[in-house]
Amino acid sequence: MAWYPGAKKLELQPESDSQPAIRPTQFIMHSVAAPWDEQRIYEYWRDSTNLESHFGLDFDGSIGQFIGTQTRADACFRANLRADGTGAVSIETASNLNATDPWTAAQIEQLIRLGVWLHEEHGIPLRICRSWTDPGYGYHRLWPEWADGGTDCPGDARVKQFKELVFPGIVARANGQTTPTTPPPEEDDDMQPIDVWAYKGRGPQGEPETRDAYAYLRQTEAKVSALAGQVSALTEKVAALETTGLTPEQITAIADAVLDGQAQRLAN
């Protein structure tokens, strides 16, 4: 049995010793459809089902290995063990409950590292599987023979990342190159990485829009500065009102009404 040195060993028994040996020729990536870390994935395989994967990967890049890569795991249907003794190495990766979210940068980096190790350890060729039996790299829904009844796993976002980041990253790293784990910006690409400086708001007519956060902050600062000037002028007017004979309560009511109007304009 082969154990990946970058993973926490969480060996499943009796499966690890009782299931037949394979010669690993493929690496197939899955989404677990749950926000689980490697420990929780291990517990699910141990306690709740007779299926299992070789690896489990958390959002933060921490990874557990449950069965040696030269022993059959049952996550890939007919790819688990073929008549010629070859089989697939499988990994379940943490995701949202619908498996619609992209892999995190930490997950992508770990998938690349593991993919390179599998190439070096087992000679898995640096290509995407051209058929369900062809040696190489793939994702669960790539070939129907890998899923009993069909599947969308690992989801559209992750299939895109596999093609643009993960598999190219494995090839580049295996060839001694380094690659980023986030793609360059592309115009009109609704699968871009999340920009933490994007502010989602409403336009003048109430339509949804995305604004650059830096520009939005500058606009807000200008509004706050203008409001401060108006408050200063209002303070002078309140002082002047004190000479008119109005009661403090009347002056407060006038000031509140003016400030409410200014705050409403700032919010819009």
Describe the structure.
By secondary structure, the chain is of the alpha/beta class. Helix content is 37%, strand content 15%. The protein contains six helices and eight strands. It has helices spanning 15-18, 38-47, 105-122, 156-174, 213-241, 248-267; strands at 8-9, 23-31, 55-57, 63-65, 86-93, 136-139, 198-202, 208-212. Strands 1-4-3-5-2-6 form a six-stranded mixed beta sheet. Strands 7-8 form a two-stranded antiparallel ribbon. A hairpin with a 5-residue loop joins strand 7 and strand 8 (208-212). Helix 3 (105-122) packs across helix 4 (156-174) and helix 5 packs antiparallel against helix 6. The longest helix has 29 residues, at 213-241. It is elongated, with a radius of gyration of 29 Å. The model is unreliable at 185-205 and 207-214 (pLDDT under 50).
Itemize the secondary structure elements and their pairings.
Elements: E1 8-9, H1 15-18, E2 23-31, H2 38-47, E3 55-57, E4 63-65, E5 86-93, H3 105-122, E6 136-139, H4 156-174, E7 198-202, E8 208-212, H5 213-241, H6 248-267
Parallel strand pairs: 1-4, 2-5, 2-6, 3-5
Antiparallel strand pairs: 3-4, 7-8
